[in-house]
Amino acid sequence: MTSEIKFKEQTFLTIQDRSNAPFHSGCKMLTWICNENPIKNFLSIEFINEYTAFLSIKIKQYADDEWHVVLNRYRLMESCHGEIGSNSHIILDQKQLLFMPRSIYQIRFFLQQPSPIWKDFSIDNVQIHFQSSLSKDRKPSIERLLASTLINDDQMTETTFTRIPPINELSQHLQAMWTICAKMQQSDYGSDHAKRFDIDGSYDVQILSYT
Length: 211
Prior knowledge:
The protein is an alpha+beta fold. The chain is built from 4 helices and 13 strands.
């Protein structure tokens, strides 16, 4: 699943917190907060770069949490004075992040562009990808299901039978399991089994006469 990030405002970080400073520090801060529950099962962050040279990210995993750094001064452009990487498509996952957060309640992007030759810099089309929560009604694996139903008859309830999949699906799984068991049993005999001369439980006299 995907949650699209819409920033209501961007903050220029100025030197010594002076909003009327004659020049900007080349650093912006973009903040986004969840309107409802935190995003869980986080997978990745995706966006389009717009002349941002370096990126850092901090998050809060829940409302009363402290800020955690998940990305520190990650390079987005090969050179802050050149075009390479200035409009690149970026995906950040566990390979780039310092750690994978359990959830995301609030997130801050710190954008840096030390070069004075660019008029503006930003990131666009920011999206957070996450995995939807597993459904409580999801059917268990056939192995777990069989193990859970190995109970006495007097312990079986109506709930036990509602968890059993359709007969055709169950038979396919069981047939596959029997095939695997049969192959494993045959392989256990080893080379000694190939030296036997029994055929369907009896012996061929012609074969035995030549041994």
